[in-house]
Sequence to fold (187 residues):
Amino acid sequence: LSVLIALAAPAYADQSAEEILKAIVKIRATIPSNAHTARTLGTEREGNGVVIDSKGHILTIGYLIVEAEDIQVFAAEDKPVKATFVGYDHKTGFGLLRTEEPLGVTPIKLGQSSEVKEGDPVIVSGHGGGDSVQAVRVISRKEFAGYWEYLLEDAIFTTPPYANYGGAALVGREGQLLGIGSLFTQI
Fold:
C-alpha cells in the first residue's frame, strides 16, 4: 500500500496522498422508476466522484447521476451530504454535481490526460482511502464507442481491471486527476 500511495503523491506533488484520497467521494443516487434509464441502469446507483473545486463541484461518470431525483455524497467521514445534478456532457460521458454544503476536503488538482501514454504507470482509486487504491498501467489509447451514450476519440484503457470503476479517479504520478472511470471492457 505504501508503494501505491507514493506513486500517487511523490515528493514534488502539490498535494499529499491523504488529501488526494479524501477528494475521492462516494456517490449514491436514486432514480425514479419511470425514468428513461431506469430499466437498463437501475433506480439505485452507487459509484465514485472526485471533488474538483472549493465550491463542492464533483466530477463523475454521467450514468451514475443522470435522471436522479436524489443524490447523496459521502466523504471520508461517511456522513451523507445532499447534492444536486449540475450537468451531463454527452460528448465525454462525464457528469457534474454540486454538494449543498462544503465537504471540508481539498479539491484534487487537474492534470492533462492528453499527456498520458501507453505503458505509463498510474493509479485508480475509488472512495475508501488507501484500501481503495490500485496500481494499474495504461495499455492503450484509442477510440471507444459507447453506442448508448458517447464516442471517445482517445479513451484511456488500463489493466488490471478495477472492481469499483464507476466514477473512480485515474491519478498520475504527480498526484493529478487524469481521468474518470467509466466501465469494464475487454479490448
